[in-house]
UniProtKB/TrEMBL annotation:
<dbReference type="InterPro" id="IPR041426">
    <property type="entry name" value="Mos1_HTH"/>
</dbReference>
<dbReference type="InterPro" id="IPR040161">
    <property type="entry name" value="FB224"/>
</dbReference>
<dbReference type="Pfam" id="PF01827">
    <property type="entry name" value="FTH"/>
</dbReference>
<dbReference type="GO" id="GO:0045087">
    <property type="term" value="P:innate immune response"/>
</dbReference>
<dbReference type="InterPro" id="IPR002900">
    <property type="entry name" value="DUF38/FTH_CAE_spp"/>
</dbReference>
<dbReference type="InterPro" id="IPR001810">
    <property type="entry name" value="F-box_dom"/>
</dbReference>
<feature type="domain" description="F-box">
    <location>
        <begin position="74"/>
        <end position="121"/>
    </location>
</feature>
<protein>
    <recommendedName>
        <fullName>F-box domain-containing protein</fullName>
    </recommendedName>
</protein>
<dbReference type="Pfam" id="PF17906">
    <property type="entry name" value="HTH_48"/>
</dbReference>
């Protein structure tokens, strides 16, 4: 397509000449329209009008002054019966419906008639960009530029802005969480040291999620987001801090209703055996045992054996001063470990008193730490 003069955009005859040239050369219509917009501007002609003239010229109908006023008004998807629109909506997945609701208000109202339930929403904040994924597909992002940012969102072209990438990105991201009654099976929030913080009011209250993973540098904000989750409905919590949770933070977490009503918990923080008493309501958990204090492994076994809902757990124990920690743990549990080269894994079975159930221990040596996996055998 040849470069037209600046006056072309306002001259219908010249615009149609540009389209005619591409139609005669049989340039694919989408490529032609993309080049057309780059040349004369995005607002010079809407695609349906471009398509009409392109195919007229393609089929050698070369009347530039054809009067379209007598033609029937083209039908659009919005002319379909309402019942059929809802039927179409039923056959779309959550991601497709979310794309559709961003088209116009009518589509938004129809899409919002169904409660959206996503498998996963993943939000990542880095020093120079913000991205969010729906069901493992990139749904939007905003990236820092020298003089502002560039945003990419559904049904929109690349958007340049003088605003910061976080300010612009949060505008679009917040709108996602304003979808009425939005629910998600797994929510993951990740932010790192040096990256901007997410808005405190990002999530609606209560937020409906079954599982959450918070991998953040600012644990105060992590607890704030956790507090928006609907207790009882939230079954699994994973707090993966950039650094180990401090003792005070662990105690705060234990007092949250979200923890008290959860079924599975993973913590990046050091716990002693008495802290495990707080886990009696859980089906499974994963945590670190204290590194600079002695651990009574018989006491650990005794505590876990009393948990009625318990199914499995994984405990990590670091002790750089004990090069043969696997021997220390195994002997503490009453296993006869011969001297000499040790296996990388030692198993231990413990019958729960006054029960036919067993706890099966698998102690695995990882050189400078040990992993202790415990499973209840019924």
């Amino acid at each position: 397509m040849e470069q037209p003069s600046a006056a072309v955009e306002n001259n219908d005859h010249d615009l149609r000449t540009c389209i005619l040239n591409d139609a005669v050369q049989k340039i694919p219509i989408f490529e032609s329209y993309r080049n057309f917009c780059k040349t004369v501007g995005q607002d010079a002609m809407e695609y349906p009008v471009f398509e009409f003239w392109y195919y007229r010229f393609y089929h050698k109908q070369l009347d530039f002054d054809y009067d379209r006023s007598a033609d029937p008004v083209p039908k659009t998807i919005m002319d379909l019966p309402v019942k059929l629109m809802y039927k179409i909506m039923e056959n779309l997945d959550e991601l497709e419906r979310t794309y559709l609701r961003s088209m116009n208000k009518s589509m938004k109202d129809i899409a919002d008639s169904r409660v959206p339930v996503f498998e996963k929403i993943d939000i990542c904040v880095f020093e120079e960009f913000l991205e969010w994924y729906l069901d493992d597909k990139l749904f939007g992002g905003c990236y820092k530029e020298e003089n502002g940012c560039t945003a990419y969102i559904p049904n929109k072209s690349e958007i340049k802005s003088e605003k910061s990438f976080m300010e612009k990105g949060m505008k679009y991201l917040t709108s996602l969480f304003r979808i009425p009654k939005i629910q998600v099976h797994h929510l993951e929030l990740s932010s790192f040291k040096g990256s901007p913080t997410l808005n405190d009011d990002l999530l609606p209250v209560p937020f409906h999620a079954k599982s959450v993973k918070l991998h953040v540098f600012d644990m105060d904000q992590a607890f704030l987001f956790l507090s928006t989750m609907n207790p009882g409905e939230l079954e699994s919590i994973n707090l993966e801090a950039s650094s180990k949770l401090k003792r005070g933070q662990i105690l705060i977490f234990f007092e949250t209703e979200q923890f008290k009503q959860a079924k599975h918990v993973e913590l990046e923080g050091y716990l002693n055996e008495n802290d495990l008493l707080k886990f009696s309501h859980l089906k499974s958990f994963k945590c670190d045992l204290v590194a600079l204090e002695p651990v009574d492994f018989q006491r650990v076994r005794e505590i876990v054996s009393t948990f009625e809902k318990f199914e499995s757990c994984e405990l990590k124990r670091i002790d750089i001063d004990d090069k043969f920690q696997i021997r220390t743990i195994s002997q503490a549990l009453g296993e006869d470990v011969p001297f000499g080269p040790l296996l990388n894994t030692i198993t231990h079975s413990y019958q729960i008193p006054e029960s036919n159930e067993f706890l099966k221990f698998e102690i695995e040596d990882k050189e400078y730490y040990c992993i202790i996996k415990i499973v209840k055998i019924r």
